[in-house]
Amino acid sequence: MSRFLLFCCALGWWVAYLPGQSTLLSAEEQETLRDSLWQISLTLEAGDSSVIKPLLILLDDQRLTIQKHYFGQDTVMVSQLAEKVVFRSTYLEGLTWGEPINGTMLRNYWRDTSRRIVFSPLLGRFTDVPPGTRAVRHELQPAPLPNGKAEQLADYRSRIARAVAQKDFYLPVELIPEIGELGTSEAFEYLKECAAGQHWGKSESPRHNQIMGAIIKGLAHHQSLEAAQLVLELTRRLEGWGNNGFIESMNWITGIHLEAGPWADQDSLVEEYQRILDSLPSLHALQTLGLQRADPVRPEDFSDRGAYLEHLIVRPGQKDFVLFHALRELEALHDPRVLVHLAALPLHENIFSSRGLTRASRRRLEGLTGVRLLVENDQGELVADANQRVKFRNALHYWVKHYGEYAWSDTMGRFVYQGNDVMPLDTVAVGIERLYQKDAAAAVRAVEKLIQLPVDTLQERLKGRHFTALHGANKALPFSLKTKLPALAEVLAICRALEYPTRLSKLAEDQLERLASAANDADRNKILSTLNVPTKESVTALEVWGYVHARRYPDAVEALNDWLNDWYVEQWKTKAISGEDLRLYLLKSALHRRGSFRGIWQKFETIIQGAGPGALYTLKVLGEKETDERISKEITGILVRDQVRRQDHFSVAEYLDFGALGAPVPVEQVVVELTPGALRSLFDRFAGSSKAVRYRLIQVVDHHRDIAMVPYLLNLASDTTIVEKSFVSFRTDEGRFTEHYSLRQGDYMVSILEKLYGIYFKEGMEEGPPEELVIRNDGLQHLRLRDKWRQAQRWRAWLRD
After folding, report:
1. Which of 186, 331, 508, 785 would staple 747 via disulfide (CB 3.0–4.6 Å)?
2. Distance in angstroms (rounded) separating the CA atoms of residues 221 and 219
3. Three-class SS of residue 382?
4. Local structure of residue 380 (DSSP, 8 states)
5. What does the pLDDT look like over 533-582, one tens digit per residue?
6. Which residues have C-beta within 8 Å of that of residue 5, sequence separation ≥ 6?
7. How far is CA 654 from each of CA 618, 658, 666, 667, rounded to the nearest angstrom?
8. H helix or E strand, kind and range, residue 739
9. H or E segment at 722?
């Protein structure tokens, strides 16, 4: 009897045992649970709802079990794992992904909607809203033109050449598979050249085997007998290195899969593939054999070839490469049903693929139809690119209902929509989407276009993007995009108002591209010497180019910034910056603090300071009449920071005031008087102050701690006002835990008392003498502050005695 059947037979015992408090399952029970949950998932995904009853019981089980994952393991409740099975194996509209459910909720929902719940082969799941049964609000736009693959290949080649020239031999390992993904004949030729030892620094690189593995991985995207033969040739060269990783590439090229365990003999597998290649005359014959091996059903038992391919696509647990080949053949038949199956990929249980079929499905749909589909997301907004279940489900509803409205055109080489309701393309949305693409050149071009938009428009369109940095954007783009893009757009808008150019000339673009390609400082300095000297009109466009390309060409941008720095120093010497140019200069200096601009704008304040008292006086005069709060605040900050640099000693009031103005004063320069009146005034400042002010006061008290402060420290030692919040993550035998905690004012006061007297009281011990304090600089000082305020009473008693 299988573990699953044994488990089901034992359900009565489980129900009787459901405890009031959480207990940890034994190792044997955990193994049985994992197998049983897996079997329940498979049974549901095969269209059998008989396992709902045991699933209901598990949803109410509060006992604990260990969940292992890539980063280690966590301790979770059995019910939490059962919830994942529900959401992974069903699409029930009334249950929200990730929200807690229990057995009663699922039982009642299943009972109340049982007439609507059906098994959908298209989804591989039970659902109460089968695909195509609901009309969805949508909009069609022309599909954007795809990125030029020849340009992408040229960019990849350039990046690899620069990396090898700088002795970075790992970047080719990362980029060669991406070159393979382009799928063009030119990309294939490049892979062949790499296989022949070109481009990646063969004579110097220590990564020969990794390069060969990267080429094999890239060849997976080229369905040809030549590609298959090259995979086998490279695998022979590796002589066993790679643990049979070549099989995946052969799967995708030929559709033929050979089972291989971790210790399988690689030479034997290579020769078996070679025998198969020699025995079949064409790639089509190989792929046909691969489909036959994937499923024993006969194609002739279906109404047509398309129906047979659909059977392969929706079969539960289908291998990803079989799915790929079946979709490609269905596409080659010009059968519009392929549109439905492409739309279903993000929702079907067959999507767990290293080849990213889900990610590519929308781009493939746009390429096959020439239209860009927008449907509602979970916020009711019409979107094309949201990566969420509601959007995917609505898109599938559309394609099931409307795929018949798309007819194949041999002239166009794609399906053509027969309707007339296509709206104009939303180019801004397309530009934002391209920030996330692998194509670095296209992502950078998108940034260059977006920052030309009005600031309000750009900010509105960026709403809702993940985190402040547009999480997941192309790695060639600047950090903190969500703040940098509007800031750059604002600067360019000011330039337009001043009738200054916001784009580089063609000559400057070409020169900067040469600068980006330069291999060393000498070459870069030579190229910079040929650039036209900036003017107040043209300098901003150069600065913006540097910010946009800072991560893509860091050495070139650093050299450019040094060149611009020298130009600005000269401008201040000659007093050439004035009027609106001065206001723009100060706005840039202000924006560098708000948007993490660490390049040339970060140096602007230093340049002003180096220009002497006259420059500071100019700022003071401007600040008295400035109406832009950001510029006014930047002027105040520059002047105050200059005063701090020139002043040796500060009162506590100056320390706090300057800090609030963005000019932090070193605590060692603060004068703290130890008279009763001065100390009372110092500690009275804690009452009603903000967290930031309290923290600065704590720093002063800690640095200047003295026995005279003891009565005041004791007075605040029990104060539970929160100064800071933090967390700590740790592992135990039962899993990984994260604990959040607060640091209170009293924690810091007790810590200062400990330093004054060199002792501490052990936590949890209500009595006993104090122990000697050992100050450790191990990075855990922050954590050790936690809950020290609870020792306040012991300190009072100890000092009184």
Report:
1. 785
2. 5
3. strand
4. S
5. 999 999 999 999 999 999 999 999 999 999 999 999 999 999 999 999 99
6. none
7. 24, 6, 11, 11
8. strand 735-744
9. strand 722-732
